[in-house]
Specification:
The chain is α/β, with parallel strands linked by helices and about 375 residues long. The chain has helices at about 45, 100-110, 120-130, 145-150, 160-165, 180-185, 205-215, 225-230, 250-260, 270-280, 365-375; strands at about 5-15, 20-25, 30-35, 55-60, 65, 85, 90, 110-115, 130-135, 195-200, 215-220, 235-240, 265-270, 285-300, 305-315, 325-330, 340-345, 350. A hairpin with a 5-residue loop joins β16 and β17. α6 (about 180-185) packs across α7 (about 205-215) and α9 packs across α10 (about 270-280).
Length: about 375
Amino acid sequence: MSVATAKRATLLLEDGRVFRGKGHGFEGEAVGEVVFNTSMTGYQEILTDPSYAGQIVTMTYPMIGNTGINPEDVESRKPFLEAFIVRRMSPIASNWRTTESLEDYLIANQIPVISDIDTRALVRHIRLQGSMRGIVSLIDHDEASLLRKVKDSPHMVGLDLASRVSIEKPYPGSNEPLTFIEFSRLAGAQPTDRHIVAYDFGIKTNILRDLVHLGGRVTVVPSKTPAEEVLNLKPDGIFLSNGPGDPEAVDYAIRNVQHLLGKKPIFGICLGHQIMGLAFGGKTFKLKFGHHGGNQPVLNTDLNKVEITAQNHGFAVDPTSLPEEIRITHLNLNDQTVEGMEHRSLPAYCVQYHPEASPGPHDSYYLFEKFFKLMKDNA
């Protein structure tokens, strides 16, 4: 579908703010929490990041779709976001790796899109009022009807979305788009004796690539896998992945991590960081509009060094709730929220941001190397 033949589309927020534009992608509608992402590139990785489940993503960069879609840059088995908002959808895909247009990809995955709205005004509204529920519709344009649908939708607080996006069975296995052999080949490395069990709360493929690239042998397990089953796999280390939703709602994961602490080295990213914070005995809270993008400055307090990081989260760990044995290692320089922490005596550490980037800068890759050193030191 070209821009010229696009259908009508409506975005309505729960506070009554309405945006009218052009519709693309799936000819339907979707409800979710409306957030914005400040990355200039990498829309394909953003679309396929499972951490966006339950959310409608607004891109602040004005032109989206001009590089199309390719099979190498997907971060999961399919897109998990609810809907997509862009300033302009490019009718032309021009890249040597392109296998299909963004338009066709969104239609195939039933993702509705609204374009040709003032995304700057929308982002400013979210920054001032906070993230809120909304609806993107290509089939219903009645404001009263749309508002009822939004009001009937669940709030993000209290939602366990990790179990929704997680795999059903452990892999490597043929039921997943990237088996262990396949992502080993992509990483260009041979596995070692370091066996890592990775909890899938919404894990991104590039995390697996990075773990394998350093020589890890990875087994990915569903989000609700009991701690005893994980230990029976005889891992050298345990990885807690990123994922969507409210961390306090994944109480099963918190209990499992509490059981695993001290038994094996643990490394957590994003939702895994929040789960670890709760397992340590801390609390989490919802951010006003979250951190979504590839340009967040983070201070490494150990080195007094700034890292530019990729982030995607709507919750944060409350530093005042953490016990004495937890040491904060990284802080967000925009709002001073906790971006990293580690246990003073146990082999366990975590970061709120995404050292695997995809998309984003690679300043924090050392965190994966730290995990392998921790496994070696605790072998």
